[in-house]
Specification:
The protein has 118 residues and is mainly β. Helix content is 8%, strand content 31%. The protein has a three-stranded antiparallel β-sheet with strand order 1-2-3. Strand 11 and strand 12 (106-110) form a beta hairpin. The longest helix is centred in the first third of the chain and has 10 residues, at 33-42. It is rod-shaped. The relative contact order is 0.16.
Length: 118
């Protein structure tokens, strides 16, 4: 079944598509499907960040590392159980979507699949 928009005039959910126009059978309002497409594109969806267990993460949360992580370019390791406070979420191109500062190591980026919400 198609997900058609509600009527902008009367908010009816019984709209249907006729060619390039959406039509509301309750109030007889007609509007262009191009206008509806532009409205949905103008409101970008917020990306939801989830931890390894599926909990939703937000800026400022505290997380715990669930796997030993090697630090690239160093002989250091972030151990299992390391608690990271005050995370910042970002949309990284390389999959690293958490920016944080870890005591003893410094600023680094983590993948949300290797942490759980504390």
């Amino acid at each position: 079944m198609q997900n058609l928009p509600n009527c902008p005039k009367c908010s009816s959910s019984f709209t249907y598509l006729d060619g390039t126009l959406f039509i509301c059978p309750e109030c007889a309002h007609e509007w262009s499907s191009l206008v509806a497409a532009a409205e949905t594109e103008s409101a970008p969806a917020q990306k939801v960040f989830r931890d390894a267990h599926g909990n939703i993460l937000q800026d400022g949360d505290s997380v715990t590392v669930i796997k030993d992580l090697k630090v690239k370019g160093s002989s250091s390791v972030v151990k299992v159980g390391t608690k990271v406070r005050n995370i910042r979420l970002m949309d990284g191109d390389d999959g690293h979507d958490i920016s944080c500062k870890i005591d003893g190591i410094g600023a680094m980026n983590l993948k949300s699949e290797f942490v759980k919400k504390a």
